[in-house]
Automatic annotation (TrEMBL):
Lineage: Bacteria, Bacillati, Actinomycetota, Actinomycetes, Micromonosporales
Listed name of the protein: YCII-related domain-containing protein
A Pfam family per the record: YCII
Organism field: Micromonospora radicis
YCII-related domain boundaries: 1-116
Listed InterPro entries: Dimeric_a/b-barrel, YCII
Domain of life: Bacteria
Family: Belongs to the YciI family.
Region Disordered, annotated ranges: 43-64
SUPFAM superfamilies the record matches: Dimeric alpha+beta barrel (SSF54909)
Amino acid sequence: MQYAMLIFGDDQEWAALSPAEEQELMTQIYGWYERWQPTGKVTNDGAELQPRETAKTVRAAADGTPVTTDGPYLELKEVIGAVIMLECDDVDEATRIAASWPLGAGMSAIEVRPVMIRE
């Protein structure tokens, strides 16, 4: 079954890292991929997202027409910063793999969610 591994954090913390700190964290992340990709549990390279200031949000207006605004405009400190797809036997296995992710500055939580399959 497929699971989405959503990495949450404060992208401003990530942006505040020194180049050396960012490189150290990226080395740990590459190590995570080296551990899990050969097992077939990681089904893509993941997608690191640009900072929240680059986002556009589309919402429905009162009359149902789409309205586009800059940014997420949520009163949240944490936003989704990356998405990685996993192929696991069950949610417990997906959670164990997610728990081995190297959480560092700008990364405070990981949500594991089953992917909806419609046939």
